[in-house]
Design brief:
Elements (H helix, E strand, L loop, with lengths): L1 H18 L2 E2 L8 H10 L3 E2 L3 E3 L9 E5 L5 E2 L4 E7 L3 E3 L8 H10 L3 E8 L9 E5 L5 E3 L3 E7 L5 E2 L8 H10 L3 E7 L8 E5 L4 E2 L4 E7 L4 E3 L10 H6 L3 E7 L13 E5 L5 E3 L3 E7 L4
Parallel strand pairs: 2-6, 3-6, 8-11, 13-16, 18-21
Antiparallel strand pairs: 1-5, 4-6, 7-10, 9-11, 12-15, 14-16, 17-20, 19-21
Length: about 290
C-alpha cells in the first residue's frame, strides 16, 4: 500500500512540474540576437539556429520556434529557432590582396567575388585592392558577392612639348606634370639656352619618367683665316666650316687686287669670330677674256 501511495505521489509531482513549467516566450519576428536574449532571460537555452531562405518573414528574423510560443517547458529546456534567409557571413578584409587572393578570401567564407574594376592610384601597387563593397566586417548573406576595385598604378602623364622654350621654362613645365629631365647642350643656330630637342617628344609615360632635352649653346664660332694672296682658298675655308664665295673681277683692276687669280678683299675680315656656316666672300682678278 505504501509503495502505491509513493508511486502516485511521484506521478502527481511530475504532472505538477510539467503544468507549472515556464511558458516559452514568443520570439517570432525577432532577430536572433534579440530572441536569444529573450529566451535566455526566461531560463531557456537556444539551440543552433537553422536558416531557411524560403521561410516567411523579414531576413534574419525568427520564422518559427520549437517549443511553440506559450508552451510550458522546464528551466534549461532547449528552444530551436528557424531563421529567415541564408546564414550570415562577415565580409573579410581584402586589403593588400590581388584579384586571385581576394577571390580565394571571399570564397573561403561562402561569398563570391562580384564586379571587378580598376582605377589609377599613385600609392597602391598595380593589381592590389583599392576598395571593396561591402566593406570588411559588414554582415551579409552567405553566397552574396563582394565588388572590388584594384589599382592600375599611377595615371600616365602626357608628355608636353617644350621645344623652343627657354631651359628654365622647360624645366618648370616638365616638373609641373611630375616628370624629371636631363639636359644636354650642343651648338645650334637657335638662340643660346633654347630647347632644340627632346626625347620622348610626345605620348604618355609614368609619373617620374625622365625626358631628355637638348639646349642650344648658340652657333659655334670659328675664326676666319687670312686668305689674302691665296690661289683657290675654297678648300681652306670649307675645312674651317665656312662657305667660300669667290667673285671674279675682269677689270678694271681694283687698287687692292693681288696677283692674277689670288684672293683679296675678303669679307668677313681675317681673324673675325663668326658662326660656323658663315659665307666668306673674296675677290680675285682674272684677265678679261
Amino acid at each position: 500500500m505504501k509503495r502505491l501511495i509513493t508511486a502516485v505521489a511521484i506521478a502527481l509531482c511530475g504532472l505538477m512540474l510539467t503544468a507549472c513549467g515556464t511558458a516559452v516566450p514568443d520570439v517570432t519576428g525577432m532577430s536572433l540576437e534579440d530572441a536569444t536574449s529573450e529566451l535566455t532571460s526566461a531560463g531557456f537555452v537556444v539551440g543552433e539556429a537553422v536558416y531557411d531562405e524560403e521561410a516567411d518573414g523579414a531576413q534574419w528574423t525568427v520564422s518559427t520556434q520549437e517549443p511553440a510560443p506559450g508552451k510550458r517547458a522546464g528551466e534549461g529546456s532547449v528552444v530551436q529557432l528557424t531563421i529567415v534567409g541564408p546564414p550570415p557571413v562577415e565580409v573579410p578584409d581584402l586589403s593588400g590582396l590581388d584579384q586571385g587572393g581576394a577571390a580565394a578570401a571571399v570564397e573561403a567564407v561562402g561569398l563570391t567575388l562580384g564586379e571587378v574594376t580598376q582605377s589609377y592610384d599613385a600609392s597602391i601597387p598595380v593589381s592590389i585592392l583599392l576598395s571593396q563593397e561591402p566593406s570588411a566586417g559588414v554582415v551579409v548573406g552567405k553566397g552574396s558577392s563582394v565588388a572590388a576595385v584594384f589599382s592600375k598604378g599611377p595615371e600616365p602623364v602626357t608628355v608636353p612639348s617644350v621645344l623652343g622654350m627657354a631651359e628654365t621654362a622647360a624645366r618648370e613645365t616638365l616638373e609641373g606634370v611630375g616628370l624629371g629631365l636631363t639636359v644636354a647642350q650642343e651648338h645650334d643656330s637657335a638662340a643660346k639656352g633654347t630647347v632644340i630637342g627632346q626625347d620622348p617628344a610626345e605620348g604618355s609615360v609614368l609619373p617620374g619618367s625622365i625626358v631628355a632635352i637638348t639646349v642650344s649653346k648658340g652657333p659655334e664660332l670659328v675664326t676666319v683665316p687670312n686668305i689674302y694672296g691665296m690661289l683657290d682658298p675654297d678648300d681652306l675655308l670649307r675645312s674651317r666650316g665656312l662657305v667660300p664665295k669667290g667673285i671674279a673681277i675682269h677689270g678694271p683692276i681694283e687698287p687692292d687686287a693681288a696677283d692674277i687669280g689670288q684672293a683679296y678683299r675678303q669679307s668677313p675680315k681675317a681673324g673675325s669670330q663668326v658662326p660656323r656656316g658663315t659665307t666668306v666672300t673674296y675677290h680675285f682678278w682674272w684677265e678679261a677674256s
